[in-house]
UniProtKB/TrEMBL annotation, chains A, B:
SUPFAM superfamilies from the UniProt entry: GST C-terminal domain-like (SSF47616), Thioredoxin-like (SSF52833)
Keyword Ribosomal protein: no
Binding partners and assembly: Homodimer.
Domain GST N-terminal: start-end pairs: 1-79
Keyword hit for Chloroplast: no
InterPro entries assigned to the protein according to its UniProt record, in alphabetical order: Glutathione-S-Trfase_C-like, Glutathione-S-Trfase_C_sf, Glutathione_S-Trfase, Glutathione_S-Trfase_N, Thioredoxin-like_sf
Residues annotated as domain GST C-terminal: 84-215
Species of the source: Sphingomonas turrisvirgatae
Name under which the protein is recorded: Glutathione S-transferase
Length: 222, 222
């Protein structure tokens, strides 16, 4: 049985959990708060970040991209990197886009202002930083609308790792009140479709202590 | 013929160039300064980052991880992600380690202090930030020594993408005077081996305008 070290609002752990859900891989979630920098965890992953997966045979997988590629290679069910080499490059480009740019501009600042400051520093969020993140979210939703003007799914004609990476980041930003769907009908329809997948339900049911999501966070009709 | 949009001290472009060199893929380098945020370049890559590769048939590859995976999938010569799925996960973990942590702690700050400040802001580097980066470099060289205590190459028993990712970052940090090899004999031997590969020679011969590397930058006996 795989163990997954993660915390409820980690967007990279959510991406991995969606992959595991789509592929039908069972796992036991293990709560890890990377900001505590626990010695045993740092011994396992010197980068100090979740997600990390470990199994009973001593295999340890570190880094969300490496973990997703591992299960794509070892579980043929629900291919998430399909098509030609160029199609896969486009999917991987978008995974990096959401992992890096969306996280840097939106999910990262929201987690810092609304979670880390509350849990670690006992401080109040900076409203300027929150406004910047919400403005950046609008630009990212515009880009999702643009992609969906040309394609059925974000990465191409089938559901792929790009959709899971995007939905993982958006779900965390949405939990933290950073997403306003107004005038993003296409992106909203796509996200409601993602939310209704069985792989998404366990994530949406989870709560982070002392931080509540908006009332429509779990709803399938936004 | 592929075109590679890059600038001489971009560590991610260097990683891609090493892959192309090892695989024997020809390409024409096209100078792109991403800090200028050229409209035509942003139209091609909304993330605004190099490397980007384009060919005559209209294929555009964006993001260094996606590009490396593309050539690993399409050119069988010189496999850079060999072994079992778990071996490949370990290689990909290390690629992320050097792309993300090494860049964040060392190459990124060095580029900012010694290149961006000079070229864009006409400002002097912050000596505190430079000291921090050089201290972080010692910790990373320690980690490379630790890996080489257990393995012939960073990612396992054969030369892999992990070695190229690490050497690409280190070569930029070295150019910018951020690497001190003292008491890192193992890491130094490994790096001299990387420098002596034919794929490395064109990179070492290149210069960034108005920034000179240390005298031993190209030398094979450090």
């Amino acid at each position: 049985m795989w163990q997954l070290y993660q915390f409820p609002l980690c967007p990279f752990s959510r991406k991995v959990r969606l992959v595991l859900g789509e592929k039908g891989v069972g796992y036991e979630p293990v709560r890890e708060s990377p900001w505590l920098r626990r010695d045993e965890f740092l011994d396992m992953n010197p980068a100090g970040q979740v997600p990390v997966m470990a199994d009973d045979r001593g295999v340890v997988l570190i880094d969300s991209v490496a973990i997703c590629e591992f299960f794509e290679e070892t579980v043929s069910k629900a291919a998430l990197l399909g098509g030609t080499a160029a199609d896969r490059a486009e999917i991987r480009r978008l995974v990096a886009w959401f992992d890096v740019q969306f996280f840097r501009d939106i999910t990262g600042p929201l987690l810092n202002e609304r979670m880390i400051k509350r849990i670690v520093h006992r401080a109040t969020p900076d409203s300027g930083a929150l406004r910047e993140a919400m403005k950046a979210a609008v630009a990212h939703l515009d880009y999702i609308d643009f992609l969906l003007d040309h394609r059925t799914w974000l990465g191409g004609s089938t559901m792929s790792l790009a959709d899971l990476a995007a939905a993982a980041q958006i779900s965390v930003a949405d939990y933290l009140g950073g997403i306003d769907w107004k005038s993003h009908e296409q992106a909203k329809r796509w996200y409601v479709g993602m939310k209704s997948r069985p792989s998404f339900r366990p994530l949406l049911a989870e709560r982070m202590e002392s931080i509540n999501p908006p009332s429509d966070y779990e709803k399938l009709d936004l």
